Predict the structure.
Amino acid sequence: MNEFIQTALAWSHGSIYWLGALIFITALLECLALVGIVLPGVVLMFALAVIAGSSDLGLPALLLLSWLGGLSGDVLSYALGHRLKHKVPRLPLLRKNPHWLISAQIHFERYGALSLVLGRFIGPLRPILPMVAGMLAMPRSRFFIVSIIAAAGWAIAYTLPGWMVGAALDLNPPKGFWLEAGWVIAILTICAAASIFSSLRAWRSSSFIAASLCALALLSLMLGFQHLAVFDTYLHDLSQIMRTSSFDQIMTAITRLGDFSTQLTVSTLLCTLLLLFKQYRALFFTAITLLTVTLSNYTFKHIFARTRPEILLEPLSNFSFPSGHSASGFAFFLVLGVLAGRQQPQRWRAIWMSAAFIPATLIAVSRVYLTAHWPTDILAGALLASTVCALNLLLIQARQPIPALTKLHWRVIVLVLLIAFATTLSWDFASTLKMYAY
């Protein structure tokens, strides 16, 4: 096995086509039923990502190939489980290690679709859970939707660190970076872990826990962002290694989702639809959350008066901390995630909130990529939105939960919002792209 890995890595150094093919195949095998258990895929994926970071294979191609490979492995595993059904326990590796299958079944029966998201980050479960989902006849459409989200998160988590290591070979981290990065990671990890755990346990205080921890994290960041200069500068410089003309267009399109004009349009449409549907509690929650985040962000910007990075040909003149795009993006999509999870099982609430974090995080990351903000700016914006959203949810549901919207309501909301986003993205895109030229 070691000789095979060394040979494969040697080939990947020679050609980006070999490298791309090997990334796709490795991701597929790592997520394929049973094969992923014996294949040291995590090590190999990290090594390939490091090579990709120091080669001509860009980050978008790396993430796309990893995502497609992982998704293909999931689909094949699901098809295998769906076809074999009760014969699955007779498969060679599972005959000798029945506890693997038992553990996966317990995990799936306890968390349902959420297990496909959580299990991707648990080595022995990753290649078995999709097969168990097929064996237990999970609906194809639901499996595919959840797997798309899970594979995307897995691809980012398993390849982005390696790519950054490879890209940083010529840009060594300065002294103090890892200490500052460890402090930031520790705070975010505590917030995420405690919020997820309390939500899955269906604690009545889950919203209070999330609001309190996010508020404390935001306060510590406000008090200490000036001491994170090394962290900000290094990640800002590292993001510039990623810049390509094609990736610039993608990130500019993503960042427009968080523009004030875009957010004002979609927020107004969402509130109008909730009013027409007579969903008054949902309307109050949505309006007060979005308005509070906007006003709070504006106030904090002028309190801290932090200057932006001066890399763009025409640097942005307004203040930087917290990021308005990050705050508004997280506020809007978290509101959608909360409304989608009303009167749903806990695991589905967690899935909807996880799905809401994806576009919000992409908007936030695009601001650093386009050199419009420092990394701590977008973290502050995300924490601000998370704090306000959790606190408002706690207050509004103190006596009575927000009622769930019907499927018809959601069809109309999704259609209208998609049209609104598409229209705003296409409006004068060339001038927006020019704005972020460097």
Residues 174-435 form a domain with the Vanadium-containing Chloroperoxidase; domain 1 fold (CATH 1.20.144). The CA atoms of residues 321 and 377 lie 5 Å apart. The chain has a mean pLDDT of 80.
